[in-house]
Amino acid sequence: MRRRLLLALLLAAPLAPLAAQVGYLPTESPYRPIQHGSFLEGSVGRIYGGGGLLDVGNRDGTSYGLRYTLRAKNTLQFSFGGWTAGTVRNVVDANDSVATRNKGAFPSRLIAGEIGIQLNVTGGKTWHGAAPFAGVSFGIVHGGQVVSDTSGYAFGTKLFFAPTIGTRFFLGQSAYLRLDVRAMLWNLTYPPAYALEPSKQPGTTTNSNAVNPTGITSQYTITPEIRFGIGIVL
């Protein structure tokens, strides 16, 4: 009896490591470890700004970025970088008549620096080559004043944050492709001239013709962006 029990234990011993693979042999597992932790990443994106309540905020433009990423833990990653975007924005003359005060869209470049925190859903591994993530970036962005804007509105310099979701597609261990979507949140500040009645067509106390008759002097706006990138190991 003891011999039979000992023989059964010896036969079962080689099967124990296979059971630990949760149904997959090591060579057949869809998960692969990410061996490197630091990458240099370049990206190109498209911004779809709404312009805010008064439609004078920055909107619609192509962005270009460069950043350094570092995986501190399997699930946690940090990034440091910057980007620039050639957006456009509407110029409004607050003193002109209602019908002609919108002077059209003019170029308005944005320049920003940011840091990011990223949570890797699959930890330090890929699943069938993909590594989905969620994160958030914090930064500072600057936009200059358009010369033809006589009402005093300028994007200026402001803080922003941007929740992000996306995934990386690893091309072996030395590089990956990246796709993400994010929503940049920043504050637009409107000049006092927007609350005044235009000299060429003043309104009345009950029917204002001011650009901004609401009295709101600032507004947080959401500016969506979709980005494509490539990262290479350092």
Structural class: mainly beta
Order of the strands making up the biggest sheet:
2-3-4-5-7-8-9-10
Integer-rounded radius of gyration? 27 Å
Straight-line N-to-C gap: 61 Å
SS strand fraction? over 45%
Largest sheet: 8 strands, antiparallel, barrel
Shape: elongated
**Weakly predicted, low-confidence segments:** 5-21
How many helices? The count is: 2
Q: Count the strands?
A: 10
Please, what is the average pLDDT?
89
Percentage of residues in helical conformation? under 10%
Encode the helix/strand succession as letters: HHEEEEEEEEEE
Notable features of this structure?
about 230 residues; mainly beta; two-stranded antiparallel ribbon; 10 strands; elongated
Report what the structure shows:
This protein is mainly beta and 234 residues long. It has two helices and ten strands. A hairpin with a 4-residue loop joins strand 3 (59-71) and strand 4. The longest helix is centred in the first third of the chain and has 11 residues, at 2-12.
